[in-house]
Design a protein that fits this description.
Blueprint lengths: L1 H11 L7 H18 L1 H4 L6 H7 L4 H4 L11 H25 L1 H28 L4 H15 L7 H8 L3 H16 L4 E4 L3 E4 H18 L2 H21 L7 H25 L38 E3 L8 E3 L17 H5 L1
Antiparallel strand pairs: 1-2, 3-4
Length: 344
């Protein structure tokens, strides 16, 4: 499994999307705007099994990412929507920090791919092979017939009834991965009650299991696919260098605290007069990098937030970026490092 993961990373790393979590939140915001301002357009976005099978609207396999995770039926929902979106932005940002850009992309798109395949299979099954196929056809045809003449205020509710709602399960899978690492983190429930993330994850898992038992076949398949993606990715990532994700997080927190303390000490010990400021600062020649990752070759010039570290278990002066520091294979031979050569 680890070798397969390394092959995927070496082949597709350059195609990974940085800050993917921000695009996910932005897509959900667009979905809410379309749902309540252009409900007629929003009807063609979620994954609707009936429309996919009988009207061949296969673009829904891609556009269901813009589906909304929950409706805004109550005024209180409008208040908590920005908080919920910011929370998932925070969750995605921390997961990408721990996993790395490629790994977070793989986790998200892997869940999307598995769930889409599952929804397609379940949709064709309930309308062609299921013993209750006539009941499914009658139910969806009745819902489609009610759309004609329906007010725009009722159209979002009908659309969500006919769709499977994969976006909500996608966000839950991301939250489960976050709770696996940051389970001891405390959040404020309703801005008042301190609540550990792992407790919220267990409650969400119980509710998800109840929804699995009460849901129809397409919904059950989507739940199984997202849980399967979570389990596959968990067992794959936890084998990286024999360290768990919590160990990686603890090491990164420790190094960040040490770096902040070092920077604070350095700033407090510097006594430079205003007229002498920046007069003796050594500047690298233009276009020459100081740090370079031994895996992907990126330097600090590829981004202002790039971080590089040496690995104490590798022979030679090999530097790695934040995406490969915890996922690279240790070099135990006599490597030829070009980092020192380029810096001299």
């Amino acid at each position: 499994m680890l070798k397969f993961y390394k092959k995927l990373e070496n082949k597709f790393y350059r195609y990974s999307i940085p800050k993917l979590y921000s695009y996910i939140v932005f897509a959900i915001i667009i979905g809410y705007i379309l749902c309540y301002m252009l409900p007629g357009v929003f009807y063609y976005i979620p994954f609707n099994p009936y429309e996919v099978v009988f009207h061949h609207q296969y673009w829904r396999c891609f556009t269901w990412i813009f589906d909304i995770p929950f409706s805004l039926d109550r005024p209180l929902d409008m208040i908590f929507l920005p908080v919920t979106l910011y929370f998932y932005y925070f969750v995605g940002k921390n997961l990408e920090l721990i996993f790395g850009k490629f790994s977070f992309n793989l986790y998200f798109f892997g869940g999307w791919f598995l769930s889409t395949i599952g929804m397609l299979f379940a949709s064709f099954y309930i309308f062609y092979l299921s013993p209750d196929k006539e009941l499914y056809i009658y139910t969806y045809e009745y819902l489609v017939s009610t759309i004609t003449g329906t007010s725009s205020s009722m159209l979002p509710a009908i659309t969500m009834t006919m769709s499977i709602g994969g976006t909500r399960y996608m966000l839950l899978s991301i939250f489960f991965a976050f709770a696996l690492i940051f389970g001891e983190m405390r959040i404020r429930l309703w801005f008042v009650i301190p609540f550990k993330v792992k407790w919220s994850a267990w409650i969400s898992a119980i509710l998800l299991g109840y929804e699995f038992l009460r849901g129809d076949l397409p919904r059950r398949v989507v739940i199984v696919m997202f849980v399967l993606n979570f389990l596959i990715y968990y067992f794959m990532v936890r084998t990286l260098q024999g360290r768990s994700l919590k160990t990686i997080k603890r090491q990164m927190d420790y190094k960040r605290k040490v770096r902040n303390a070092t920077n604070h000490t350095a700033r407090s010990n510097v006594d430079v007069r205003p007229r002498e400021r920046n007069t003796n600062v050594y500047r690298m020649p233009a276009g020459k990098a100081i740090h370079k990752c031994a895996i992907c070759g990126r330097t600090e010039q590829d981004g202002v937030n790039m971080e590089f570290r040496y690995c104490s278990k590798c022979n030679g002066d090999l530097e790695y970026c934040q995406d490969h520091l915890y996922t690279h294979q240790h070099v135990t031979g006599s490597p030829v490092s070009d980092n020192k050569d380029t810096n001299n």
